[in-house]
């Protein structure tokens, strides 16, 4: 009898905190289904994951890019550069090792696509974001190519609704804070080039955005697999963070009343203006609510320390009503009974973690998909509200109380809890995300070069 050879899969995650963990979660799940997985890492942001994922193989591309390259080029230009450097290196690797059956790559590191086409390897795209985001990029490109958009800096003022893209306004489209519109269009053309692939995997769920998932399927005419939230579909695996977690904040949370704490974090990339951080600090103090604030080193523009924050803020922290960390164990924080609300930039992972913990949000999006996510949270699921315009201490204070004290916040929390229950059902056996994951495994098993 002919022996069935184990499928050999190459997975290429993007080297960013908001992208890496969800793909590693998927990688370990696919391995558990009998697929051999090799993870291709970049030298940039390299983290040794072999101890956390002993069953997976790892390969590093020597891209020669560093943190200072990212700072000097800007994120957008950096991603374009990283892709062009990595493509020939991967091609050479795959010519030497011709035993790969299949490639899955993150949408932002699209360099494997050309290699896969040249070598006739089936491939799939992994999007760590929502289907709504994928579609919004096409809507943005379409409007830009037709000359319907004002200059980049004016788009964020456009309150008008985008025709046939309910409930998004032009200002919600995923423009970037990290480079020019011209370069963004080049990036999005690469990111959105999906039809030649064998499918698109989304870290999302049908219970969250079934209509956008159907639209994505119609747009790209390939199967779409909404398999998320991956931290719940495959909870047994936990990918170490690129930063060190300060777990002592969990002890502080133990001392706080149920649903009283506002947790503030802006993900791994967003930068806050000094004046905004100052207004936030005073607003948190004046809200009279306990607060847990993640301030990443270097994330406040022009400030290396927190000495610029006023004495009343420092006193509140000393008194124990406030707690500041550089990086928190976020998923555990959001599941803690003391957390009543989440102030966030609307990175997709944070949105998923928030709703799957039943925690309502205050949205302050900065760039890209965060604007789309904020609109989903506030106008589709109605588990959040967005802060818009100039950030002042009074606005901060009222927003915190609106979410953690007022009746409106209680209603948002109830909707978030209902959504949490739907998500839990979707990742159980028979649920939509779990079934999608099974279909993905079947598809990989059936595809060969
Ligand atoms: C980036 C983009 O900015 C985001 O818009 C996109 O959707 C994904 O890639 P990032 O800005 O880092 O991600 O935000 P987010 O998607 O929320 O991911 C941050 C991750 O870091 C989350 O999984 C969160 O749990 C984790 N985190 C954040 C911590 O573990 N501790 C912290 O203190 C802060």
TrEMBL record:
Keywords for this protein: Glycosyltransferase, Transferase
Domain of life (superkingdom): Eukaryota
Protein's gene: LOC104703177
Record-stated family: Belongs to the UDP-glycosyltransferase family.
Ion transport in keyword set: no
Protein name per Swiss-Prot or TrEMBL: UDP-glycosyltransferase 76D1-like
Gene3D superfamilies: Glycogen Phosphorylase B
Pfam families for this protein: UDPGT
């Amino acid at each position: 009898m002919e022996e069935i050879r184990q499928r050999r899969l190459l997975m290429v995650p993007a080297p960013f905190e908001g992208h890496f963990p969800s793909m590693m979660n998927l990688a370990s799940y696919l391995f558990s289904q009998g697929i051999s997985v090799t993870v291709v890492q970049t030298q940039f942001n390299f983290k040794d994951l072999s101890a956390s994922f002993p069953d997976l193989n790892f390969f590093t591309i020597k891209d020669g890019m560093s943190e200072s390259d990212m700072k000097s080029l800007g994120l957008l230009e950096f991603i374009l550069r990283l892709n062009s450097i990595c493509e020939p290196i991967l091609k050479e690797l795959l010519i030497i090792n011709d035993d790969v059956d299949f490639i899955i790559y993150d949408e932002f590191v699209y360099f494997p696509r050309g290699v896969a086409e040249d070598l006739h390897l089936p491939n799939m795209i992994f999007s760590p974001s929502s289907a709504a985001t994928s579609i919004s990029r096409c809507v943005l490109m379409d409007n830009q190519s037709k000359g319907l958009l004002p200059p980049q800096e004016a788009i964020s003022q456009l309150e008008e609704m985008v025709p046939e893209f309910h409930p998004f306004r032009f200002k919600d489209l995923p423009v970037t804070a990290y480079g020019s519109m011209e370069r963004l269009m080049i990036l999005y053309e690469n990111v959105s080039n999906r039809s030649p692939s064998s499918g698109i995997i989304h870290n999302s769920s049908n219970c969250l955005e079934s209509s956008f998932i159907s639209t994505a399927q119609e747009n790209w005419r390939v199967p779409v697999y909404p398999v998320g939230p991956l931290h719940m579909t495959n909870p047994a695996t936990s990918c170490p963070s690129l930063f060190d977690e300060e777990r002592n904040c969990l002890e502080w949370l133990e001392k706080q009343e149920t649903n009283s704490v506002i947790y503030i974090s802006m993900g791994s990339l967003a930068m806050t203006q000094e004046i905004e951080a100052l207004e936030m600090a005073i607003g948190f103090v004046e809200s009279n609510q306990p607060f847990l604030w993640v301030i990443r080193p270097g994330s406040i523009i022009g400030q290396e320390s927190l000495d610029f924050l006023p004495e009343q803020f420092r006193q509140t922290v000393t008194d124990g009503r406030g707690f500041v960390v550089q990086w928190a164990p976020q998923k555990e924080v959001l599941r803690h009974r003391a957390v009543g609300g989440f102030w966030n930039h609307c990175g997709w992972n944070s949105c998923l973690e928030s709703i799957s913990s039943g925690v309502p949000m205050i949205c302050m999006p900065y760039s890209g998909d965060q604007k789309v996510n904020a609109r989903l949270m506030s106008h589709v699921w109605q588990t959040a509200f967005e802060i818009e315009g100039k950030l002042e201490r009074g606005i901060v204070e009222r927003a915190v109380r609106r979410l953690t004290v007022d009746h409106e916040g209680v209603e948002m929390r109830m909707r978030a809890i209902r959504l949490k229950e739907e998500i839990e059902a979707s990742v159980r056996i028979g649920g939509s995300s779990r079934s999608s994951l099974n279909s993905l495994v079947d598809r990989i098993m059936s595809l060969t070069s």
